[in-house]
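FAQ
Q: What does a multi-component entry look like?
A: The components come first, one per line:
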Amino acid sequence: MSPWNFFLDHRAEIFSATLDHLILVVISMDIAIAIAVPLGMLIVRHRHLRVVSLGIASVFQTIPSLALFGFLIPIPFIGGIGRRTAIVALVLYALLPILRNTYVGLTGIDSAILEAAEAMGMTTTQILLRVRLPLALSVILAGIRTATVITIGVATIAAAIGAGGLGTFIFRGVAMVNDSVILAGAIPAALLAIIADLLLGLLERRLKVA
Amino acid sequence: MNAKLAAPSEVAIEFRGVYYHINDIPDRAIVSDISLIIPHGETLVLLGRSGSGKTTLLRLINRMLLPSQGQVLVEGRATTESDPIRLRRGIGYVIQEAGLFPHFTIAENVGLVPTLEKWDSARIASRVEELLRLVGLDPAEFSARHPRELSGGQRQRVGVARALAADPPILLLDEPFGALDPVTRAELQREFSALVRRLHKTIVFVTHDIREAVLLGSRIALLYQGRLVALAAPQEFLRLDHPEVHAFTASLALTNGVSQ
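Then the predicted structure of the entire assembly, as tokens:
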């Protein structure tokens, strides 16, 4: 059977897997952003926390994804087989790009601007919220974009621990030695990544100042 | 107003035996043993080479730095005892690259301190208009623009307007015209000197350009390796017999020679 025919026959199933995949990515990214952006703001001022948190986030990035899923399975509460474990792993993966870009964006601001802000009598909080954050927004978003693309890719592997999504087709296709089945998972996953990259790139350019 | 021996009530800024060294290493003094009285309404120019400590003196006034030894008094009050935020809102500050906020419009940049001080928006708007006119920019044309759409000279005008926004009695300027081309610089210097005569503010102006110092200063304070080595009114200053004064007047003679 040609890939196209397979796709037409299984379109409902593929669509639902794409949706599962997307949900997995969105949930993971929301959690990762909620952790990494505030943490990135915090480490501008706290040097020790910066070294520790960037270090830990880098370690998670270097662990191969399948190994990370494997590590998490025996851990109580967050581990086990299924979607919860997958989300934990995806969050850990997404942390570094967002954290690093938040920190770089907030600290990479022209020193004359920060000096003027301080000399005008702005408080540290006002400088953070009204100067650093708006000026760092496009850099932070670039980190979110990188993390999103990574997460869409890694989420296909999450199927190996029973989290569902487009990886299900890929693993099944490999086991069946059937290209059509593999492509039914691989093509939508690739498209998701490309579309996410384009849309976030567009948003990033719109937020860029000066 | 420019009396050299001022009564305490006439003193705007005073340095009393001020030293500043980084990380409290006394050998590495950036400024040493500075005692200086700046009366209200004076335009004091701090002149010196790069690294002579002039910017450090400026930053000691608005508490961006605290003295390692001695005291800096602003309106009779030691900076160590004043709240830095309140102190700074009462002192205008202009720096070389203007330091305008790129994500703010010109009007928002100029209205920054009034906004922080929670003025109502109608009052801010009228103040911004008044200030843009004062620095020679048409409010209708410039208010809604962003800093990147302006030339260097126009940005620096906005920088001056922003510093004047809340009508602070003291104005600090750190080589405000240093990054401009010579023609624009001369234009802004002339306009600034006219502005100063109208505003009656206490001004401390940092520069390494002796022409600018002579043009704008009611007195010139010369810094050399962190020490105050000369202090005089411009014409008197040019006649002083000090090697560092000679070094600066020589550069003046040279530029005059070229222009003739």
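Q: Is there any commentary attached?
A: Sometimes. For this entry: The longest strand of chain B covers residues 11-21.
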